[in-house]
Amino acid sequence: MGEDKTEDKNESGLELTEGETELYDRQIRLWGLESQKRLRTAKILISGLNGLGAEVTKNIILSGVSSVKMHDVQLVTEEDYCSQFLAARQSLGKNRAEASLERARALNPMVDISADTQPLKEKTAEFYSAFDVVVINGQSNDELLRIDAICQDLGVKFFASDVWGMFGFYFASLQQHSYVEDVVKFKEMEAKPNQKPKFEKVAVPFQREMNYPAYSAWIDFDVNAAGYQRQLKKNGPGVVLLSVLQKFRTTYKRDPSYKTREADIVLLQAIRDELAPNSTLSDESLGVLFAQISPAVAVVGGVVAQEIIKVVTRMEAPHRNLFIFDPDTCAGYVQAIGVN
């Protein structure tokens, strides 16, 4: 496995310019100068400039990273109007990454932003080695497995993410990840004679390390396992729904479409009954999976960007390791996959 690229590259003594310090003043006060310096050196790849990709891109650009490479081979369609705000309406029929460049660059002129339209299948390990974090949207499990394996060898952090209608997820494959976590302790204050001792809260930073399984842990996950059934009753069938959607994509080489909604719901029902015949995944849940809806994109994209910032700054523990946004409850939860 390659060396973790986020571990040492940010300790180079880089100083922010006066303009950067002014622009990122609020963030520096929020998470500290050293964290902002680490962000300033980070190079991020975001593949899949659908609505979710646009949301992640926006948040990452605003955070003040070094560069963002926007990758996509798809063209802008009317379906993108639901949530893809970086591509203008007049860009219909143009490449999504290239159509998003102008508005993306306007968000933060201090970030180097570029577009790439070459298919991922043609990308070699050398391409991925240029990044600290790789985010892949809209790909099949086979492709996600292939890219994650490359990132594992390179020590590059990997996120797989997606949104279908009002349902969304991300999986974090971060390998051995080190971070600093503040632990609150009580410190006894000096008291006057004959007075009861007083205590104040003090945040003490501690170095932590956590192992994150590869994406293959999700592929090997059994949604029908007895141990998971207890969690399913607590969290709902979101993990089952993710399995159904990914099986649909693998089988039909596409996602459910609003143009063939009724027929696709029947196909989804068949996959559900095959993968998890005893699940509580309802037919109603299968009816809200068409086109990426802005509220779901905003939630999932915001969480993905937040986790990328955690990874780069090495402040706080990233979620471990599957995040689900459930349209039935309009809430998200984290499911540990392949974690001992």
Task: Describe the overall structure.
With 340 residues, the chain is an alpha/beta fold. It contains 13 helices and 10 strands. The strands form 2 sheets. Strands 3-2-1-4-5-6-9-10 form an 8-stranded mixed β-sheet, with helices on both faces. Strands 7-8 form a two-stranded antiparallel sheet. Strand 4 (133-137), helix 8 (141-154) and strand 5 form a beta-alpha-beta unit. The radius of gyration is 22 Å and the shape is globular.
Question: Which features does this protein show?
Answer:
alpha/beta, globular, 8-stranded mixed β-sheet, 340 residues
Ordered list of secondary-structure elements with their pairings:
Layout lengths: L17 H6 L1 H7 L1 H9 L1 E5 L3 H13 L3 E5 L24 H4 L1 H7 L4 E5 L8 H4 L4 E5 L3 H14 L2 E8 L2 E7 L1 E15 L8 E15 L3 H4 L6 H10 L2 H15 L8 H15 L18 H20 L8 E5 L4 E5 L5
Parallel strand pairs: 1-2, 1-4, 2-3, 4-5
Antiparallel strand pairs: 5-6, 6-9, 7-8, 9-10
Helix pairs in contact: 2-3, 4-13, 11-12
